[in-house]
Amino acid sequence: MPTDDALSRYSDWTYFAAVAVYVVAMTLYFVEQALSRAPRDEAKVLVSAGAPEAEGKQRDVAFPLEQERDVASPPRGERFGRMAVSVTVLGALLHLISLALRGVAAGRVPWGNMYEFGSVLCLAAVTTWLVLLQRRAPVRHLGGFVLLPVVLLMFLGGTALYTTAAPVQPALQSYWLVIHVFTVATSSGALLVPGVASVLYLIKTRNEADPEKLAAIASRLPAAETLDRLAYRVTIIAFPAYTMAIIFGAIWAEAAWGRFWGWDPKETTAFVAWVIYAAYLHSRATAGWRGTRAAVINAAGFAVMVFNLFFINLVVAGLHSYAGVG
Amino acid sequence: MSVDSVETAAPPEATPPGGNAVLAFLRNTWRGLTSMRTALVLLFLLALAAMPGALLPQRSLNSPKVAEYIAAHGWWGRLLDRLQFYDVYASVWFSAIYLLLFLSLVGCLVPRTLEYAKSLRAKPVLTPRNLSRLPHHVESTVDESVPDVMARARQRLRGWRLVEREEGGGTRSISAERGYLRETGNLVFHFAMLGLVVALALGKMFSYEGQVIVLADGSQFCNSGTLGYDTFRPGLRVDGTDLNPFCVKVNDFAATYLRTGQAESFRAGVEYQSGADLDSGTWRPYRLEVNEPLRTAGDRIYLLGHGYAPTFTVTFPDGQKRTSTIQWRPVNPQTLLSEGATKLDQPGVTDPALRRQRQLAITGLLAPTAVFQGSLMDSGFPDLLNPAVAVDVLRGDLGLDAGRGQSIFSVDQSLVNDGRLKRVARANLKPGQEVKLDDGTSVRFDKVEQWVDLQVSHDPTQGWVLVFSLLLIAGLGTSLVIKRRRVWVRATPADTGTVVEVGGLARTDRAGYGEQFDRLAAELVRGGRPDADR
Ligand code: HEM
């Protein structure tokens, strides 16, 4: 099937427009972050107000309502935050259009090579973020930390890994491409958010243990509890999705490669990541393993996902070598 | 704050009086093995142990690459070999880890299942005396009577498992719990994993996988024994005598390519027979494609690859002819430049000594779309647009009688070095062209046939693997979405109405319970403000 060059070019333009818009949004989030009052002060207030009862009777508010948060945030920061969210939505729309154009140009779903896969993954991460904000998570000013890896990934994808729109090779011509690759890309993208939250959690607790350390970032982060829950809540959605993605992959492999599981490097690394996330869920139910250790495990899980995306695709050859790079 | 400890894996056994040391040791080992912490450590070990398989070449995937790696890395490569790092998933250490995990899982599941069965019938726990010590607590005085408060609470807590109790002095309380399905999902998930491991293990024993190259010119392959295969990998309990009978005939093969040379589609037209068709001689047509294996007789037949087989006709000085079509193998997967060796005996030569002087080998390169740089031939495109071969013709002893196995794609180079096999011609040929040897023999390149590489796979348990995978995902989803919550309501008559106390406890995933509880408590305390959020 011929590919439409013009459409493909428009797709590339919107892709880079989306990256640029994300950079703007990221900057706005960081401005909000910089202007926001250090929640450590709030914590002090809380403790002194409810000192006798604070132990063991800590309130289990999932995410405090928006109004509660507004009180703490100065209006200037608030304005930047609101703008940042609108700009993120704009970026996501451009991003979506770029993928749609790519799909039309290539005459297939737009996740057939590594460039496109990365693009879908990033859109999933941004979308997860926006959904969280919709759920009134008091973490809006952390948006910059989520967009930073997204922008980096998209920049890398759009330059080093860029591939022109083309049909895919026979092994990929299957509706399982639609299902398997889509679920892998979106669940991986969603897992970026817990990964970021876990790293921030580690920064926060490091700083709590020793206020000298990492003060510049940590003083403006929300409470460690909040970050921990943020990571958990997204992981329990994304992990089953990722599990499903692996099962879909096995079903496809049975039809395409003659076996449902063959310890191909990509499969192996996906398995390793899966086991690490399973360990994360376990750790949260194991005394002495909650908190810091769980955060380390979650961050390690995402590190393995990134490793699988880059190292295994580009350096280690295997059946999954469909990156279309080089 | 550990509200809901799950460290209950080990059954609380009473220590026997006198305390048998061996028993105690066994019990402690068992407890250690089945604790949550051990499971966690084993999970890490599993992840860690699986990783080398992605980074080092593996025999099961590519054994020549393993040999290359060992050769390139000297003692280090050999050490890794001795430690089974090239067969990670069959290694002693990998197996040990997953067996331990398996044991730990069984040990963990047995008591949990028993407890679960008990809890199915159990009533929600007694209302704690002091509700204000719970993580969630609301207290207020209302005008309604105790029965009215209770009635409203029961109404509001529909769908929860609850008991109402008299506490004396006109005080009544409700103890309610929900989210039991969470534990169900969790157990289903873990049991599915057990089932998955068992199904995989059985599959390893009774499965087999064989590969065979078949010319796409109406040639046949029958699954009658392991000798019919080019390579055959049996499971531990497969001896190759009882293969499921079926036959496949490959009539044609077609590939289409993009202008860039990227393949767009592969398709083999085949016919097959199995079961009763074998006796009646009925052939059924099938279009074999990548992603579309043929499933018959409990086996699957895959189109794995394809390539070219040149046809040569050799006319000997005495007028006798031999024609041979044999597969050559692609050396460049992009352009399908192929190499190979077509080996022939001169007909009518019976004296072994003479035979060993007169054997012929035609060896070299085949290009489906030949491009020449001077006399150097390469392939510019994978399709058969302008085929040509660049071959050496060798005469002498091919070593076929030596009893040593040799590659069908090349001649034994040591025979060439020994001078027992001599080059007698070198030529670039297009279809129809021929080259004459010094003794008057002519070698003609007739045409190119296609061959397909078929894989036959047999795995009697893969259906079960799928079933357990689906159970696994269903259990996982249930377990992670459903939350366990407890609520207690106590209504105590007071001088000016009724004191209502509501306490709440999230047994799992406390995040999100706060708001829910607040809404619930607000209704119970202040009176039925309707709420969309159940
Ligand atoms: C074969 C390896 C294992 C894997 C891959 C695994 C995986 C998981 C996963 C993904 C979860 C979270 C989902 C859920 O709650 O249903 C979980 C939860 C759990 N697992 Fe495992 N598990 C394994 C072995 C074990 C073993 C050996 C034990 C017992 C020691 C165990 C005990 C538990 C418990 C108690 C939970 C519930 C945790 C909670 O309440 O949040 N698991 N497991």
List the helices and strands and how they pair.
The complex is a heterodimer of chains A (326) and B (534).
Chain A: H1 5-35, H2 39-49, H3 51-54, H4 66-72, H5 75-106, H6 114-134, H7 143-159, H8 175-209, H9 215-218, H10 224-256, H11 265-283, H12 292-314
Helix pairs in contact in A: 1-5, 1-7, 5-6, 6-7, 6-8, 8-10, 8-12, 10-11, 11-12
Chain B: H1 21-33, H2 36-50, H3 52-55, H4 63-82, H5 92-121, E1 136-142, H6 146-156, E2 161-166, E3 172-178, H7 180-206, E4 208-215, E5 219-222, E6 231-234, E7 246-257, E8 263-274, H8 276-280, E9 284-289, E10 294-296, E11 299-315, E12 321-325, E13 329-330, E14 338-344, H9 352-358, E15 359-367, E16 370-373, E17 376-379, E18 388-396, H10 413-417, E19 421-429, E20 434-436, E21 442-458, H11 462-481, E22 485-494, E23 497-506, H12 513-526
Antiparallel strand pairs in B: 1-23, 2-3, 3-22, 4-6, 4-21, 5-7, 7-8, 8-9, 10-11, 11-12, 11-21, 13-14, 14-15, 15-18, 16-17, 18-19, 20-21, 22-23
Bound molecules: protoporphyrin IX containing FE.
Protoporphyrin IX containing FE sits between chains B (6, 9, 34, 36, 39, 43, 101, 104-105, 108, 185-186, 189-190, 193, 476, 479-480, 508) and A (278, 281-282, 285).
